[in-house]
Amino acid sequence: MAEHDVIVVGGGHNGLTTAAYLAKAGLDVLVLEAKEYAGGGAVTQEVTVPGFHHDLHAIAHIFIQASPLVRDDELGLLSRHGLRYVYPDPCISVVFPDGDSICFYRDVRKTAESIARISPRDADNYLRFFEFADPVLDMLLGGFFAPPPPLGAMFAQLDQSELGQEVLRVLLMSHLEVAQEWFEHDKVKAAMARWVSEILAAPEEGGTGAFLMIMVPLIHRYGLGFAVGGSGALTAATARALASYGGAIRTSAPVERILFEGERAIGVRLASGEVLRARKAVAANLNIAQIPELVEHRFGADWQRKVDRLKPAGFVLLVGHLALAEAPIFRAGPEATSAGLQEVCLPLPELRQAFDGLKYGRPASMMPSIGVASVWDPSRAPEGKHTLYLLSFVPPELASGGWQEVFEESFTAFCALTTNMSWSKVLHHVVHSPDDSERFNAAWPKGDPGHFGSQIFQFLGYRPLPNMGYRLPAESLYLVGPSTHPGSGITGGGRAAAQCILSDLGLGSGE
Ligand SMILES: Cc1cc2nc3c(=O)[nH]c(=O)nc-3n(C[C@H](O)[C@H](O)[C@H](O)COP(=O)(O)OP(=O)(O)OC[C@H]3O[C@@H](n4cnc5c(N)ncnc54)[C@H](O)[C@@H]3O)c2cc1C
């Protein structure tokens, strides 16, 4: 029977990151990935026409830019294993159907100038908000890429000062409520809410205010990165780092059961029946909802009830991948056109209605997010041609109609905002619906790549369950990825899980 120190189940970017930190600390690590290739949500493929490299899921790498994984290059991804980033500037433009736009630049003052075109007073408000949020980012980021402190202790500490109490209030509010307190003009409020909703939280969802406070300083300090060659380049670099420390990945190896001796996890059984033993730990880069079946419900009905009641994200995603004959030109002008991402925003009342509609099965096709990464990274498409990533917020199930229809509505909304786009510029397209996401990745039931929502009651030290952190309720068994802190997205969050495992094994924290 094959034996390793640690078996990591699932080869998404988080599983690979955890594995690489553990291997760097001297452990013999094997990653088991169900699909025929690793990467999970960080893969790039030529799904339309040869030569057009599309990020199938994640395209914008934001949180990971602030992590020591990238910032301090702790695994040598940048210096030794070929990962490179380009940083579009403006990072994001929020575009309104009437041609107005707000551009979020790396530079906070240039961003304020962009806001001033709509509201000079809100330009000042933005600068004030940045001054409030920037020091808070240090406070929150300290615990963002490491195991989080208990939420109760964190709240008690915040409650000690006036600034802390203000932060606490924001953590408990919805991100639209925070925007409404700080800004005056409806378009500025809508733009802020639209941008933050990318974390799959509707503007009026309570307990999401932290994200406005985090994302504003985050984008100005670290920017938004496109991995050169596509998100798959992050996967490839992490896989190379893992190999350089002696670790390995086995693909086409779906895990069907986690095996125990007494209370201790001692290995896994693959769907093929093969058993692999883990001497020190098993770490699952999976959705916590997958765990009960994998452990044959050994954690009991009460634990399962707590897992079952985790509140889902407000909506999920449909993405269209298009090979374009030329780059889109936005009516909003060259600044908006040159941004890394364009996010279509509706006036505030319609924006609220669109998010409400998602609760009742109606897609928000009129406000897609658009990424033409090939403008910033020409390696993604043949010369002069481009890749278009057209993302729509959708309900997990449609009240009526089909996914192709939703995609076509989004494409029409996108074309209307440009001077040059129509079906005649599309060489080929492929649509990935939430059903496709569910089929693509067993960790994404109903197509939710974040597993469940990021409201404060299931975030920080309460993610996935109060004070569980990365430790499942059995010896030597860990959970890694969006079900755990710091949650959904390309975060490099596998670093914090590795710290927890290394500390339990008496091997320091791996920094
Ligand atoms: C359409 C879409 C767009 C997105 N855009 C962005 C974006 O722009 N920026 C961003 O930051 N994030 C984005 N995300 C979210 C991001 O992709 C995920 O949060 C991220 O992939 C989570 O990484 P992970 O490594 O923890 O897990 P995953 O990527 O989910 O990887 C888990 C891996 O485990 C494997 N697996 C599952 N079950 C088993 C099993 N039983 N045995 C073995 N292996 C198994 C899966 O095949 C998969 O490879 C997007 C997601 C989607 C769906």
CATH level-4 homologous superfamily of the domain at 2-41 and 65-85 and 227-311 and 446-504:
FAD/NAD(P)-binding domain
CATH fold label of the domain at 2-41 and 65-85 and 227-311 and 446-504: FAD/NAD(P)-binding domain
Mean pLDDT: 96
- Could you say what the CATH architecture of the domain at 2-41 and 65-85 and 227-311 and 446-504 is? 3-Layer(bba) Sandwich
Helix content: 25-40%
Small molecules bound: flavin-adenine dinucleotide
Q: Helical element count?
A: 17
Structural class estimated from helices and strands:
alpha/beta
Structural account:
The chain is an alpha/beta fold and 511 residues long. It has a domain at 2-41 and 65-85 and 227-311 and 446-504: FAD/NAD(P)-binding domain, CATH 3.50.50.60. 34% of the residues lie in helices and 18% in strands. It contains 17 helices and 18 strands. The strands form four sheets. Strands 1, 2, 9, 10, 11, 12 and 18 form a seven-stranded mixed sheet that branches. Strands 7-6-14-15-16-13-17 form a seven-stranded mixed sheet, sandwiched between helices. Strands 3-4 form a two-stranded antiparallel sheet. A hairpin with a 4-residue loop joins strand 11 (264-270) and strand 12 (275-284). Helix 4 (120-141) packs across helix 9. The model has no long low-confidence stretch (mean pLDDT 96). Flavin-adenine dinucleotide is lined by residues 9-15, 32-35, 40-42, 57-60, 254-255, 285-286, 317, 319, 437, 441-443, 449-450, 481-482, 488-490. This is Pyridine nucleotide-disulfide oxidoreductase domain-containing protein 2.
Outline:
The protein is α/β, with parallel strands linked by helices and 511 residues long.
